[in-house]
Write a structure and sequence with these properties.
alpha+beta, nine-stranded mixed β-sheet, globular
Length: 603
C-alpha cells in the first residue's frame, strides 16, 4: 500500500481528458508514491561511509547517504505538484519546504517555512509571516513575490485553498495578508495551509500567469529544460529509471539540522520487494509509507524501527454512478450490507487497520465526536457481518432477481457484475479486493478482480471506463480529521477528475429519508460548502451531521477500512525522534525529522 500526496490539488478543476494527458506512467505518484528514488539505476549509494567535512558554520557533515525505498519509475515523475498524477510527493517533499505540519502527538501545527499565522475571524483576514531566512538553492531569497505567484496560479487552477481567500495583499518581503471569502473556520484554513509548500519561484513560474490553466497543469517539471530549485533540505541532483538523488542544500534555513550529504529515493518494486530489502536492511535505510503485516515486521532486524501515525486514509469502493446497476442507490446499499468489513481487516492486517463503524464520509476515530447522539440512528450496514438477507431485500425492491446461475439480474436479463479494479503492488489492497469480490460473488454478483499498474488504475477511473473498484475514500493526511475534506472529496473525486460521475448529482437537490421519519431535501455539495464558513466546530456540527446522513444513505463512495501509516527507519547509523516527541507525530519521518534535525547520521 502507498498513500496520498500532500498537495492541495484534489480540488483542481481539470477535465478527465486533460488529466489523462498528463497521467502517463506516473499515476503511482498521485496517491500511491510510497517512496521515491534517485540515480540512474547504478549501484545503491554506500550509506556506511563516515567521512566528515566541516561547513562554514562548523557543522560536521558525514559523507553518507540515506536511502529510502518506494515503488515507481522516477523517469515518469516530476516536481510540478499541480500536475497531480505525475507528481512525486516523496521527491517534492525533499526540495520544497512546507508552510507548516501537523503533529498527531501534540494535536497541534508546527511551523515550517511560516514563522507565524494570525487569523482574525472578526475581520475575516489572516496574516501569514514567512521566515526571513528562506532561500532558494540557486542563491535567490524566497520572498512574498514567489508566494504571490503561487497564489495566482492556485487561483488560476481553482485549488481548494482559493475557496477561502477572496484576495490577498503583499505587505512586505515576508508578510502576506489574506482577505478571507467570508466567515472561515480557522481549523479548515490551517489544515489547508498545512498542505502547502514553497514550490513556486517567481522567475520560473510567472510565465504561466498569462497562459491557459491547462498549460500549467500539464507542465512536467522534470529538471531537464528547467532546473528544479529547492527551498528545503535537499537540492535535486539527478533521476533515472531506478532512483532520485539529492544533495544537501547548504542554503536551507535549518541546514545545521542536516548532518549528512546525500538522500536517495530508490525504487525497490512493490511491497514484497521492499519487505525483503528491510529484512536485510543492507541496501536500504527506510521506507516512507509501507504496509507490512506483523509476521513480516517480526522478521525485521532490531535496528529497523517502525513509526505509526494515523493516516486518515483507507481502502474504499468507488462506483461509476452512470452505470446501469451501480448508479442505483439500493444496489450500492446492498453491496454495503453484503460486505463484512471486519473480515477485510482481519485478512489484510488487524494490527494496523480498523473499520469505520458507520460509512458516512467521516474518518472512524472522528465519527462519535462529530455525530454525537445522531450516530445511533445511522445505518451501520453490519460492520462485523455480511447482512445478505437485507441486501437481497434491497435488490428485489430495485427490480432484480436471481437467475438460474444464482446471479442477480435486472428485468432485461442484464447480470450485475463486471471487473473490480485494484492497484498492483499494494499487497494489503489486493487482499482486501479479493475478500470483497469473494463476498459479493457469494451474494450473487458476477465480479472478478482486475489488478492494474497504478497509473492504469487511475486512468481507468478518470476515463469512467469502469463499473466499480477499490479506491481511497478520503484525501488523507491530518486535514481528513476535519469532515469537510473527505466529504467534499467523495462528491468531487478530483483525484480521478470526477470520473465516478457524481459531480452533477452532488449539485442537484436530492430527497432522502429523514432522521426520525419522513423525508428531507439536500443539495450535497452546497451543504458541504457551508461547513468551512462556520466559525467553530460547534457551529459546523449541524451541517456535518446532515451531510454525513446523506452520505450514509446515498453512498457516493463506500468507506470500508482505515489504517495507521507505517514508516520504517534504521537506527544502526541513524537517529530518530523518541516516543512522545512532537516531531515523531508528523507523518513521514524521512522528511520532517530531517527538517528538524531528529533524523541524523550518528557520529
Amino acid at each position: 500500500m502507498a498513500e496520498q500526496s500532500d498537495n492541495d490539488g484534489y480540488d483542481s478543476a481539470i477535465s478527465r481528458r486533460k488529466l489523462l494527458a498528463v497521467a502517463g506512467a506516473s499515476g503511482t505518484a498521485a496517491i500511491a508514491g510510497c517512496s521515491g528514488d534517485s540515480s540512474d539505476g547504478a549501484e545503491s549509494t554506500d550509506t556506511t561511509t563516515t567521512t566528515t567535512t566541516s561547513t562554514g558554520d562548523s557543522i560536521q557533515v558525514h559523507d553518507a547517504a540515506y536511502t529510502a525505498s518506494f515503488t515507481g519509475n522516477p523517469n515518469d515523475l516530476h516536481f510540478n505538484s499541480a500536475s497531480r498524477q505525475n507528481y512525486s510527493w516523496p521527491a517534492g517533499r525533499c526540495v520544497f519546504a512546507p508552510f507548516m505540519k501537523y503533529s498527531f502527538t501534540e494535536g497541534e501545527f508546527l511551523m515550517g517555512a511560516l514563522e507565524d499565522i494570525e487569523i482574525n475571524t472578526d475581520d475575516q483576514e489572516a496574516v501569514l509571516t514567512f521566515r526571513d531566512d528562506l532561500q532558494w538553492d540557486d542563491g535567490d531569497p524566497v520572498t512574498t513575490e514567489d508566494i504571490d505567484v503561487k497564489f495566482q496560479l492556485a487561483e488560476k487552477t481553482e485549488t481548494a485553498l482559493m475557496g477561502y481567500i477572496d484576495d490577498w495583499e503583499v505587505v512586505d518581503e515576508q508578510t502576506i495578508r489574506l482577505d478571507l471569502a467570508g466567515p472561515t473556520n480557522p481549523e479548515v484554513l490551517k489544515y489547508s495551509l498545512a498542505t502547502q509548500r514553497v514550490d513556486r519561484k517567481r522567475d520560473i513560474h510567472d510565465r504561466f500567469l498569462d497562459a491557459d490553466a491547462t498549460e500549467f497543469l500539464q507542465w512536467e517539471w522534470d529538471g531537464e529544460e528547467t532546473d528544479v530549485v529547492s527551498s528545503a533540505m535537499w537540492s535535486f541532483d539527478s533521476k533515472g529509471r531506478q532512483a532520485f538523488t539529492f544533495e544537501r542544500n547548504e542554503d536551507f534555513y535549518k541546514a545545521e539540522n542536516v548532518n549528512f550529504s546525500e538522500f536517495v529515493i530508490e525504487s525497490f518494486g512493490g511491497n514484497n520487494a521492499q519487505h525483503q530489502a528491510l529484512m536485510s536492511a543492507d541496501n536500504v535505510d527506510g521506507a516512507f509509507s509501507l504496509f507490512v503485516p506483523p509476521e513480516i515486521v517480526d522478521q525485521f532486524p532490531d535496528h529497523v524501527e517502525e513509526i505509526m501515525t494515523p493516516s486518515k486514509w483507507g481502502y474504499g469502493m468507488v462506483f461509476n454512478h452512470a452505470n446501469e446497476h451501480y448508479g442505483k442507490r439500493p444496489v450500492r446499499q446492498a453491496i454495503a450490507h453484503a460486505i463484512n468489513r471486519s473480515q477485510l481487516v482481519e485478512n489484510a492486517g488487524p494490527r494496523t487497520k480498523f473499520t469505520p463503524q458507520v460509512p458516512c464520509g467521516i474518518m472512524p476515530e472522528d465519527q462519535e465526536p462529530w455525530l454525537g447522539d445522531w450516530m445511533s440512528d445511522f445505518e451501520d450496514y453490519g460492520p462485523e457481518s455480511s447482512n445478505t438477507d437485507r441486501a437481497a431485500e434491497l435488490m428485489q425492491e430495485a427490480g432484480y432477481a436471481r437467475n438460474g446461475d444464482g446471479f442477480w439480474e435486472d428485468d432485461s436479463g442484464n447480470v450485475v457484475g463486471g471487473e473490480y479494479h485494484s492497484p498492483a503492488g499494494w499487497t494489503d489492497w489486493t487482499t482486501m479486493s479479493q475478500t470483497v469480490v469473494s463476498q459479493l460473488q457469494d451474494f450473487g454478483f458476477d465480479l472478478s478482480v482486475s489488478t492494474k499498474p497504478v497509473n492504469n488504475w487511475f486512468s481507468t477511473y478518470s476515463d469512467s471506463n469502469f463499473a466499480l473498484g477499490s479506491f481511497p475514500w478520503s484525501p488523507g493526511q491530518a486535514r481528513s480529521a476535519f469532515p469537510y475534506f473527505p466529504m467534499r472529496y467523495q462528491l468531487q473525486a478530483n483525484d480521478i477528475a470526477g470520473g465516478h460521475n457524481y459531480r452533477e448529482k452532488a449539485q442537484s437537490e436530492q430527497t432522502i429519508p429523514a432522521r426520525g421519519g419522513g423525508e428531507m431535501t439536500i443539495t450535497p455539495l452546497e451543504e458541504v460548502e457551508k461547513i468551512p464558513s462556520q466559525p467553530d466546530r460547534e457551529s459546523a456540527r449541524p451541517y456535518v451531521q446532515r451531510v454525513a446522513w446523506h452520505n450514509n444513505i446515498e453512498l457516493p463512495m463506500l468507506g470500508l477500512e482505515s489504517s495507521f501509516s507505517q514508516t520504517f527507519t534504521t537506527t544502526d547509523d541513524w537517529t530518530v525522534a523518541s516516543e512522545g516527541d512532537p516531531d515523531r507525530g508528523v507523518n513521514r519521518a524521512q522528511h520532517w525529522q530531517v527538517h528538524e534535525g531528529k533524523l541524523q547520521h550518528k557520529n
